[in-house]
Every structure is written in structure tokens, then in C-alpha cells.
């Protein structure tokens, strides 16, 4: 009979760290997506609180404001992995969230004299700060999650994405209509960000061994769990581990992850941004002005993320599927079902508006499985380099939402032409389908050899031995 493993308290420091990560994603996503509501309130004060200034911005200027965040966001994804390794997740995430929060605070005080241009500039800076976030989150999860709990705890932390998106849409509208008006959106965004920073400074630690609050039992449980996959003690790992770039770039599992996350970004950006435009143009439905319609798909996604989480736990604990099987099964559901759904939406008639809303909500909700399916795969492949991997993958994934609207602009010349939209949806469905197929064939949940902190050293030794052997053979010849 196997002895029970001492895991420490039922709710330990690892759970607190994951809860803080969940809150980090939530407050940053509130700051990330509240501009959609804020811009409407700032250009049409009658819909919210007419006691505050109104600005005469055209559609192009509003589009610049909404997209400017991503101009900065994708730039710092890759540096984020390096900064996290250099300064630790605790400091880097603190700077990331505080910078974004203070940026939000500047908006009400600068828009009067700087117009939409200064609003764009602030959003770019917010994007630059927030780009540091996710490489740190994956690195922090790798440091704190026992191997058997990575899937559950990682997925729980990432539900902050859906929570933050829903709250950004609902709360921003309520705040804009209150006595605080549209400036209140910025004040609240800044406030929740600063409160999180205080909690983070007090309770966060870069690793279990650095935490002053963790019990010895829990610390040993986390470290021994990680050691089970390695030949050396995780506590003896050098602080600075060189990045094996050549091995990473020649790794098929890494490329499978990169392709899957880029395909997810392409498909999801179509679900998120283009289907509402299609419904407005072809079906005559103004989704964006209806808070319920706007938030409903993301609420469904939030609920589905917990369903996927519970289901994956059951399948793992009962050994019905391996982790590799769960990753690829969930990713297939998250990619292939919305792929079919995208094509189906293109054939919905104007008299079937309810069906269109159901399809859109179901597509976005089912896509929540991609978090467990592929987003957490960075930690499977390499806990030591999870932040670096996430930086590379997220850089690629966040360039896609900048490019897809350009493709839509080339294809869709008339927003009321169903045939043109069907081409857009078919392309996205193909990207979803082929991206997941590549992931199924080449993806893996096995710890990669290049995760070993001594990988480059052992490789150098092998090369030296090879040179010495050749030299000896040459001498013997002569």
C-alpha cells in the first residue's frame, strides 16, 4: 500500500499564488478591454452620463484607439520571458500591472488636451507593460505547481481571462452610467490594479523555497514533485540557466505548440471581432451596442472553462486519459467544433437571429478548451524555460489579431455580402483545422531533454569528447 504524501494545508501557499495569478489576469484584462465601452461613452455621452465631456471622433480614430493596445502588447512578449528570468516573476509582474494601472489613470487627465492621439499613446504604453505578464505567469506556475496539479492550477489561474473580459464589459457600462461617468472606468481600473499590486508584494514569492509563509511539508511536496521528473534536486538548480536556443528551435513539440497557439489566435480573433461585424452587416443585429449580447459569449467561455477543468480532473484521476490525451482531445474540441460553427454561421439567414447568437455563444464557449488543450503546454515541455517559450509563442499569437482584420478588409468590400463573409469564415475554419492537426501529430506533453539545466554543458562535453576522439584517431593514423 502506497504511503500518503504529506501535501501541507488543504489550501496552501500554492493555491494562494494561483489565486493571485487569477486576480492579476482579471485586473489586467479589465484594463485591456474596457476601452471598447469607454470609447462609446466618450463619443456618445447621451447613452451613459451626459455630464461629462463628449468627443467627436470618427470610426477610424476609434479603431486606432481600440487597436493601439496591441501595437505595444506583442512587442514586449518576448522580452517578458527574459525579464522574468533576470528579475523574477514577482518584480516583473508588479511593474507590469502597476504600469498598466497608472496608464489607465492618465486617460481622464490627458484626453482633453491630447485628443484621441494621446489616448492611443497611453494604450500603446499599457500594452507594452501588459506584454510582460503572461511569460511571467507561466514561469510562476512552473515554479509553484506540483506536476500532478499543474493542469488544474494552471487552468484555474487562466480563468481570469474570461472573468476579466466579462467584468470589463459589464462593469465599464455600469460605471460610465453612474455619477463617476466615463472617467470612472479609468479610476476603477487603476484602483483594482494598485490593490492587486499591494497583495502581490505582500504574499507573492518567486518560488516555494523563497516563501516565508509556506509550510515545510508543502515546500517539500512541490519540490519533490518536480524532482521526480529530473535527475537533480530542483533546489540545486542554478539561478541562471542558459537558454538552449538551437534545441528549442529544432524541437517539433515546440513548433506544434507555436502553430496551435497561432491558429487559436487566428480563429478566436475571427470569433471575437468579425462575427459581430457580420451579424451587423448581414443579419442587421447591432451586437456591440448590446451589453448582454457582447458579454454573453465570454460568460459562456468562463463557465465552460470550469467544465473543462472538472472534466480533465476526472479523466486524469480515473486514468481514462493521459495528460497528452487530454491536451489533444480538448484542443480538438476547442478548434474543430468552432471551425464547423464558423462555416455554419455563414449560412444563417436574417430570420434566424436567435440561432446566430446561439452559434456565436457556443463557438466562443467551446473554444475555452484551448487553455487546457494547448496554452499550458509550455509548462509540460520545459518548466525551466516556460517563460521564454510563452514569450515566443505569445509574440506570434499576438501579431495575428493585427493581421486578420487586414485580410478581412481585402476580402469583404461590402459588409452586407454574405458570400464574402463566407470566404473569411472558411479561411479561419481551415486555419483552426490544420493548426490542430499539426498539434495532434507533433505535439507532446513529455518533458523535453533541453529543459535540463545542464543540457548545454553536457552537449559541450560531448562535443569536446568527439573532438578528442578524432584527434586521437588522427595521431594513431600517423
From TrEMBL:
Q: How does it sit in the membrane?
A: Multi-pass membrane protein
List the Gene3D superfamilies hit by this protein, alphabetically: MFS general substrate transporter like domains
Q: Does the keyword Cell inner membrane apply?
A: no
Task of the protein: May be an inorganic phosphate cotransporter.
Name the PANTHER family on file. FI21844P1-RELATED (PTHR11662:SF280), SOLUTE CARRIER FAMILY 17 (PTHR11662)
Membrane-crossing ranges are 20-43, 63-84, 91-110, 155-178, 184-205, 291-310, 330-348, 355-376, 388-411, 423-442
Q: Which InterPro entries match?
A: MFS (IPR011701), MFS_dom (IPR020846), MFS_Na/Anion_cotransporter (IPR050382), MFS_trans_sf (IPR036259)
Q: Where in the cell is it found?
A: Membrane
Q: Which residues form the Major facilitator superfamily (MFS) profile domain?
A: 20-447
**UniProt protein name:** Putative inorganic phosphate cotransporter
Q: Name one GO molecular function term.
A: symporter activity
- Pfam families for this protein: MFS_1 (PF07690)
Amino acid at each position: 500500500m502506497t504511503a500518503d504524501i504529506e501535501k501541507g494545508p488543504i489550501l496552501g501557499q500554492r493555491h494562494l499564488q494561483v489565486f493571485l495569478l487569477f486576480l492579476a489576469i482579471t485586473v489586467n484584462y479589465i484594463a485591456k478591454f474596457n476601452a471598447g465601452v469607454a470609447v462609446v461613452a466618450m463619443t456618445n455621452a447621451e447613452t451613459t452620463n451626459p455630464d461629462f465631456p463628449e468627443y467627436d471622433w470618427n470610426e477610424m480614430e476609434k479603431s486606432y484607439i481600440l487597436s493601439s493596445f496591441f501595437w505595444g502588447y506583442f512587442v514586449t512578449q518576448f522580452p517578458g520571458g527574459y525579464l522574468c528570468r533576470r528579475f523574477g516573476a514577482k518584480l516583473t509582474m508588479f511593474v507590469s500591472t502597476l504600469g498598466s494601472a497608472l496608464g489607465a489613470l492618465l486617460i481622464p487627465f490627458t484626453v482633453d488636451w491630447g485628443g484621441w492621439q494621446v489616448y492611443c499613446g497611453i494604450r500603446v504604453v499599457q500594452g507594452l507593460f501588459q506584454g510582460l505578464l503572461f511569460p511571467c505567469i507561466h514561469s510562476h506556475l512552473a515554479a509553484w505547481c506540483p506536476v500532478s496539479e499543474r493542469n488544474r492550477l494552471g487552468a484555474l489561474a487562466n480563468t481570469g481571462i474570461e472573468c476579466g473580459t466579462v467584468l470589463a464589459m459589464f462593469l465599464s457600462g455600469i460605471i460610465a452610467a453612474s455619477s463617476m461617468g466615463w472617467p470612472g472606468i479609468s479610476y476603477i481600473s487603476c484602483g483594482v490594479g494598485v490593490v492587486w499590486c499591494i497583495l502581490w508584494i505582500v504574499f507573492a514569492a518567486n518560488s516555494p523555497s523563497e516563501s516565508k509563509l509556506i509550510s515545510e511539508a508543502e515546500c517539500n511536496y512541490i519540490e519533490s514533485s518536480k524532482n521526480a521528473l529530473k535527475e537533480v534536486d530542483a533546489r540545486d538548480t542554478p539561478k541562471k540557466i542558459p537558454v538552449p536556443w538551437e534545441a528549442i528551435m529544432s524541437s517539433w513539440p515546440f513548433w506544434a505548440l507555436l502553430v496551435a497557439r497561432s491558429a487559436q489566435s487566428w480563429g478566436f480573433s475571427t470569433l471575437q471581432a468579425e462575427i459581430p461585424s457580420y451579424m451587423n452587416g448581414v443579419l442587421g443585429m447591432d451586437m456591440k451596442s448590446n451589453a448582454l449580447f457582447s458579454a454573453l459569449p465570454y460568460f459562456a467561455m468562463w463557465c465552460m472553462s470550469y467544465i473543462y477543468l472538472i472534466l480533465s480532473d476526472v479523466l486524469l484521476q480515473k486514468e481514462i486519459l493521459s495528460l497528452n490525451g487530454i491536451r489533444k482531445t480538448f484542443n480538438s474540441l476547442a478548434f474543430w467544433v468552432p471551425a464547423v460553427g464558423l462555416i455554419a454561421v455563414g449560412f444563417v439567414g436574417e430570420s434566424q437571429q436567435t440561432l446566430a447568437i446561439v452559434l456565436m455563444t457556443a463557438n466562443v464557449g467551446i473554444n475555452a478548451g484551448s487553455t487546457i488543450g494547448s496554452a499550458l503546454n509550455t509548462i509540460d515541455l520545459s518548466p525551466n524555460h516556460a517563460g521564454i517559450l510563452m514569450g515566443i509563442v505569445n509574440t506570434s499569437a499576438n501579431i495575428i489579431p493585427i493581421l486578420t482584420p487586414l485580410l478581412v478588409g481585402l476580402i469583404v468590400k461590402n459588409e452586407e455580402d454574405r458570400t464574402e463573409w463566407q470566404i473569411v469564415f472558411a479561411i479561419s475554419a481551415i486555419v483552426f483545422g490544420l493548426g490542430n492537426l499539426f498539434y495532434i501529430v507533433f505535439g507532446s506533453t513529455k518533458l523535453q531533454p533541453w529543459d535540463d539545466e545542464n543540457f548545454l554543458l553536457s552537449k559541450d562535453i560531448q562535443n569536446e569528447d568527439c573532438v578528442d576522439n578524432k584527434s586521437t584517431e588522427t595521431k594513431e593514423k600517423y
